[in-house]
Write a structure and sequence with these properties.
mainly alpha, single chain, globular, 0% strand
């Protein structure tokens, strides 16, 4: 059996989109990412200073940056192996609706608030720079997986855009279930997953409104680092910041969830694509 036939079989398998293949892609990435984190900890664990990922530039590198680089390589290798590099970054096949721009405004507003409210003096320059770099990689990898790969698989499976939006957001929430492995309380993990679903729906609407995968990547890529620097951790809800802007930005978490549930009612489109069979 030649490498060409193996490759074409691989591509044909993924080009026949179904919801369960989107689940396989998400779970597969999650497992590989967690394994990368474990390997990274074993190899570079002697460089870290305690368990706080923002305690030093070395901590940010070990806890965040290195596993994300590995995850990005895995995802880019996957989309290149199936020939999706161009389709995923092309204009969206379904035009956005005017009201979807509300999601763009809702997601940009807390970023601006946090940018002005973060206590930058509490961190070294290296921590700030590497945290923003890690955030951009989070936006790239998680959006490439959930608003890129998963959305393409769901659309080519013939699902309506409402189903695409909900399922891709549920998969995004699933990625955050792994926080339980870090010792977070179950309730905190569940609340994080609820928020992730709401934020995932917002990112789907940003994808539709802007017509490009780049914009949810950028907005997501700025949301995570500003949130981490504002709260002093990953997926935490408390903040030691004195700026009144930070609690205002935090209130958008609830707004995302409410807006997500309302948006499900109004999403009625279907992608103008045919199911790929080759």
């Amino acid at each position: 059996m030649t490498e060409v036939s193996i490759g074409s079989r691989w591509a044909r398998f993924w080009n026949r989109g179904t919801w369960w293949k989107a689940v396989i892609a998400a779970v597969g990435y999650l497992v590989l990412y967690e394994l990368a984190g474990l390997a990274d900890g074993r190899v570079l664990g002697n460089l870290v200073e305690g368990t706080d990922p923002l305690a030093s530039a070395k901590n940010v590198m070990v806890y965040l940056l290195v596993p994300l680089i590995i995850g990005a390589i895995v995802l880019v290798s996957f989309i290149m192996s199936v020939g999706w590099s161009r389709p995923l970054f092309a204009a969206q096949p379904t035009p956005g609706r005017w009201w979807m721009w509300i999601a763009v405004a809702l997601t940009v507003a807390p970023i601006v608030l946090r940018l002005f409210g973060i206590d930058y003096g509490a961190y070294s320059g290296g921590v700030i720079a590497l945290t923003f770099l890690s955030g951009l990689l989070i936006g790239f990898t998680e959006e490439l997986l959930t608003r890129g790969i998963a959305v393409k698989l769901l659309r080519s499976g013939g699902h309506s855009e409402r189903v695409v939006a909900v399922l891709s957001s549920l998969l995004f929430a699933l990625l955050h279930s792994s926080n339980i492995l870090t010792g977070q309380p179950l309730l905190t993990v569940l609340l994080t997953m609820v928020y992730a679903f709401g934020f995932g729906m917002m990112m789907y609407l940003v994808l539709r409104a802007t017509g490009s995968l780049i914009w949810p990547m950028l907005i997501h890529g700025l949301t995570d680092p500003t949130t981490m620097l504002a709260t002093g951790g990953i997926d935490t809800v408390h903040s030691g910041a004195e700026s009144p802007l930070i609690p205002i930005a935090g209130a958008f978490s609830l707004i995302f969830i409410v807006a997500a549930l309302l948006s499900i009612i109004f999403i009625r489109d279907r992608a103008r694509t045919t199911r790929e069979i080759s």
